[in-house]
Each structure stands twice: as structure tokens, then as C-alpha cells.
Amino acid sequence: TATTLTRIDPKVAVAIPSISGGVESLIKTMPGVASSNELSSQYSVRGGNFDENLVYVNNIEIYRPFLIRAGQQEGLSFLNSDLVSSILFSAGGFDAKYGDKMASVLDIQYKKPRKLAGSVTGSLLGTSGHIEGISKNSHFTYLAGVRYKSNQYVLSAMETKGEYKPNFTDVQTYLSWEPAPTFELAFLGNYAKNNYTVIPEDRETAFGTINEAYKFRVYFEGQEVDRFENYMGALSAQWKPQQNLSLRLIGSAFHSLESETYDILGQYWINRLEANPGGGEYAELTEAVGVGSYLNHARNHLDAKVYSIEHRGTYLLSNLAWHWGIKFQHQNIFDRLNEWVLIDSAGYSIPHQPGFPGMANENLPFDLNSAMRTNISLASNRYSGFVQNTWTLDGDNDRIHLTTGLRMNYWDLNGQMLFSPRATLSYRPLWEKDVLFRFSAGYYHQPPFYRELRDLHGNINYNLKAQTSIHFVAAGDYNFIAWDRPFKFVTEVYYKHLENLVPYEIDNVRIRYHAKNNAKGFAQGIDFKINGEFVSGIDSWASLSIMRTMEDIKDDFFYRYFNAEGVEVRASMGSEIADSLRVEPGYLPRPTDQRVNFSLFFQDFLPRNPSYKMHLNLLFGSGLTFGPPNSPKYKHTLRIPPYRRVDIGFSKEIIGPESRMRVGHPLQHFKSLWISLEVFNLLQISNTVSYIWVSDVRNRQYAIPNYLTPRQVNLKLQATF
Predict the structure, then answer these.
(1) Of 73, 187, 238, 526, which is most buried by a Cβ count within 10 Å?
(2) Which helix (H) or strand (E) is 197 found in, with range?
(3) How far is it, in rounded angstroms, from Cα 314 to Cα 407?
(4) pLDDT, tens digit, 9 for 90 and up, residues 210-243
(5) How many CB atoms are closer than 10 A to CB 67?
(6) How far apart, in Å, are the Cα atoms of 49 and each of 35, 447, 658?
(7) Burial code of 616-626, b = ≥16 C-beta within 10 A, e = fewer?
(8) pTM (two decimals)
(9) Which residues lie closer than 8 Å to 378 by C-beta, 6 or more apart?
(10) How far from 318 is each of 18, 315, 322, 398, CA to CA, in Å?
């Protein structure tokens, strides 16, 4: 291909075994993409975070919820795999026609039906169905899908026992009316209601090392109730006054109503376990090292509205393809935050003020471990546009292509005008082997949307500027034949220079920004992918990514203190300090610094009975960084254990091309009917997604791992007609 976009078969999205399912599960197996949470549809691309990925459906930009902080709260993503006809994905160096984010772009096109058809899918995790068709005069087409999902079956097996009531519903439609060959009117609509309720009861987690093992036990009171309701509608009109000229006008509106409310009291014990294997009480509780309580409270409500109107055009010549566009966007954000955490250890609130002899307790200051209360109303306008041209430089040979483009973006909140030049050159040499070389470079500015503006205490920085990433990508595609079957090997080497970065922290899937442009950094790496018919007739692939991303926060430093003998001492210990040394940490790993990622999607079938199929999805990702809460970034250099997961599915075709039902049979009108057995987390690996931090009275902190889902089985039935 002459672009950085990779085309993915949408049919595989239905077959891939995964809890979250859908198109995003396919994206997670692409080179350069990392994900360490099977409950979430979010992914990181080449060192970027979840907010740095663009998603389009029929040229409409899709937004993700703001308040979600854990994968089990997400429910259904916007993308409905039953409605998808085309998937294009780029992990970097993408064209100027795509918007203003720094990491990746996912370009989805929904179907334009040619006949009456539909599908129904049911499993232990939910149900979905869709219908599509066309009018008799072929002027009107319709496409509609409905989905229902409940993770109750999955969540009930997690370490935190309790009553889970997840309820996720989604309805989408895409309508098209073409009264004349030169004019088309289309509507894309979506309504999603995701409710998540949990009444936790208790939890028990073993952690530590062989020589220093602990058990964390906690009993809960209270509940959490989250509601996320989204509305989206887009109307587009396309006019083709000439065969080589296309003009499009798009108007869209997005409305998100989100609430996050909880009061959860946890009373916990941390006990040391006997670590001597030769002892008679091996792995038994020996002593309590921490006893306390914590109370988490939140009443968070967000109302976000985004309206936009956009014009796009395309003009094609024999060796030129012009694309241009201009867009106006208005957004309103109403955000009310009220959340706090109280930690109590053996009768002392953490942080603890020790006081002095004779001082009454009521005179001591009372500090919460963390607290945030804000009421924010934010309205702003954005103006953007682009112009892009693709040349075929060698005429009819079609071997050299050059795409150049320029984006413009202006946001009236911070008054910043941005220009983003981008270019891609592709060259296919006259070699005996089928090889294509590509080189891409460009500026990728990401103006703040909303979450980047809000710091850890809920304050808004109205002067925050856009983050900048300069991409350099060199790639090579090699198409070859092995075992008389087609294969493709792709290699991409990249370097991203990062400026005006906004440092952030990741807790599960929630991103908490520092709301300052006080960092610079880089991301560099190499990606490999091989795909082809490892088994004749069906596609499989494997991806390997090696990456490093670092950042240097400009104003972070700390002091080391020494006594008169030159021995380092702590300033809080009361020792006499004779000297000090200022230390600047320099470059540190970013929260998405996942050095190695490997993914494998493999399909197979029985040679003598192809109606029996197997689908294997394997993911490995090295550990991400983390650190204690409320601590400076230079202390966030600990590593979560690697993410390792294998999901496998076995399918039996009951109705298909080779097994049609006879006339008169109740199932004769079905085109296909499959029954599948899926095993999630086949190897029963306890993957860590985050940590909960608890303290004892000496303020020693313990990092308690939050584990993801264990091995589970899912039964699924899929039918099309």
C-alpha cells in the first residue's frame, strides 16, 4: 500500500475470542499497539495514551467517555462489528486529512447494503443483532444494530466478591438515500446507555515475595452506581457534480451524560504469612502488620456536548488526487466533581499529625488523604482545516507516490494557532521480489480537549497549549509466496520527538493529567508483522514490537542531605544537616513505556472437516511503570508484572456453504449458523492491572495488586440470514 494505513478484514472481528470483543480486539493484535486489560476496549499505540487515538466512523469523529476509571465500567464501545464493512488503521505517520491527535487513527466505514440480510448473536456475555436492506428502487438503504452486554458472569469470578449489576445497551443506525446518481443523503445515529452497579462484600489477596509474603483481607460496606448515557447523530450530504469531483457537507452532534457515585467503606487487615517451607505453619497467618479502614466517596457528574459542521472535498485527475476540508466545532462541558478518600490506620487518619504532649485532639488539623471538589463550566470553539495532494510521480508505472498535506487548527480558549505539515513517500522498485518502501514524516499537534486541562486537584489550566509529536517512520512491505500460499512481512522503524508534553498518571484506564506543558520526551521503536495463510484458505498473523518512550519533566528535582561525616540522612529525622545536593532525575519512563509486545492471532480447521474451526488469540506485554500515590513522578519507576493472556475459541458450523438445510426445514433461510465454545485466560494467569495502596500507622505503604479476570468459559451462537 502507498499509505501508512493497514486494511483489516472486518469478518475476523466476529471470530476473535475476547471478553471485550469487536474491532478493538483486532486492533490490539496490530504491531505497535499495546493493551494490558481485557475488560477495556482502550489501547496504547507507540507510547501514546488512550486519549491520543483518533477513531472515525463514516468520517465522523467518535469520542470516548470522560469519567470511566476501570475497564469493567466501560461496557460497549461505539464500534458495532456487525455493521462494519471496512477497517483501516495507522499506528503513526498518517495523512493530514485525519485530525489532531498524536498517536494513531482508526478509520471505520459502515456497510451500504445491497440486499436484505441480518445476523443474531447470543452468548453468556450478551446478545446482539442487526438487519440491513435496500428499497425496491435501490434509492434507499438501511442498516440497524442493537447490542446488549452484561459482564456479570465475568466479574463474579474476580477477587472482590459482591453483587455486580452491569447493564450495557446500544442502538445504532445508518440510513442512506440516493435520489440521483450525483446526490446522496446519509444519517448515522447512536444511543448508548451503560449502567454499572456493584455492592462489594469482601476481598482476599495474597501478595509479596516468597521470603516476605502477606495476605490482604478487606470487608466492604456501601455501593457504587455509575451511569454513562451517550447520544450521537450525524447528517451528511454528498454531491458529485462531475465524475472526478466529490463535495460533502457533514453536521454532527454528540451529547454525553455521565455520573459516578459511590460510598465504599473498607475495613482491612494486612497479615504476614509464614515463609519457612520447612515449618509446620507454612503459608499460615503469623502476625498482623496493618489494621485500618478507608472510605471512598464520590459524587461526580459530567454533561458534555460537541457540535460540528464540516465540508470535505475530493478532486481526482490522472496522476493527482486532491483532498481538502474545513471544520467548525463547538463544545460545552459542565463538570461537577466531589470526591475524597479517608484512610484510617489503628485510629489515626493518614496523613497523621502526631501533635505534642498536652495538646487536645480537637486542636489537631484534620487532613483527608485526597480530596477534590470543583464546579466547572467550559464553552469553546475550534476551527480546523486541511489540504492534501497525492501525486503518482512516474506516470503509468504506478511505482512512486508522494502524499503531502497541511493541517490547520485554532482553539479560541487558549488562542493557539497550529500548522501541521505531513508527507508520505512510497516507492516500489523494479525488483524480482515484491517489495515496497515507505517513509513518512510530519507534525502532529494535539490541542487539549478537556481532561488535559484538569489537574490532579480539579483545577483548570486555561492556558494549556497543544502537545506536539514529530513523527519519522520508515517502513518496508515484502509480499512473498511460501508453501504455495501468499504471505506479507512488514517492518516499521519510527522515532517520535515529543514537545510541550502534559505529564499524566494512569490508574486502571483512568488518565489523570498534571495540566502543565512542562515536559519533553521521545518514543522510538521497531515493529514487525507477518500475516498470511499459515493454514490454507484462512488468514493468521503475528506481531512483535520493541519500544521505548521517555520524558523529562522540566521542573522536577529533589535534595539529598548529608551530615558532617558525609553520611546521607533524612531531613525529617532531626539529624544535623551539614550539606545538601540537588538532584534532577532527567529522562524517566512514561506511564505507557511497555518495552516489548507480542501478539498472535491464529486460525485453523480440521483438514477433513472444515466445519470445525479453532481461533487462538495470544497477547504478551512487558510491565508498565507505576508508583505510590501522591508522590513525585520520579518515584514512578516500579514495574507491574508482564501481561500474559491466551484466549481460545472452538467453532462448529451447523449451517454453511457445504451444509445447507433442505427446503421446508425451520432453519432453511439461515445463511450460516455457528456454535462456539470460548475459553478466556486459558493458562489461568493472574494479570495485574493496578494497585490499591494502604498504610499502617507508621505510614508505611503496601501496594496490593488488583488482578484481572481468571479462566472462564463462554458459549456463543451466531446466525446470519
Answers:
(1) 73
(2) strand 183-208
(3) 16
(4) 777 888 899 999 999 999 999 999 999 999 999 9
(5) 21
(6) 10, 14, 46
(7) bbbbebbbbbb
(8) 0.92
(9) 331, 332, 333, 334, 335, 413, 450, 453, 460
(10) 45, 10, 11, 11
**Opening angle at CA 545, ends 542 and 549, nearest 5:** 160
Distance CA 622, CA 572 (A): 37
Backbone angles phi, psi at 633, to 5 degrees: -60, -30
- Residue pLDDT, tens place only, 489-526: 999 999 999 999 999 999 888 899 999 999 999 999 99
DSSP states of 223-271 as a string? EEEEEEEEEEEEEEEEEEEETTEEEEEEEEEEEEEEEEEEEEEEEEEEE
First to last CA, the chain: 34
Residue tagged 495488586 (cell numbers): 705
Closest CA to 460 of 524, 414, 420: 414
Q: Please give the Cα distance from 136 to 116 (Å, whole number).
A: 11
Burial class (CB in 10 A: 0-12, 13-18, 19+), 11: exposed
> Which positions ≥6 away from 214 have C-beta within 8 Å?
206, 207, 208, 270, 271, 272, 273, 289, 702
381 vs 236: CA distance, rounded Å: 21
CA distances from 709 to 146, 255, 644, 658 (A): 26, 32, 12, 38
112, 86 in Cβ contact below 8 A? Answer: no
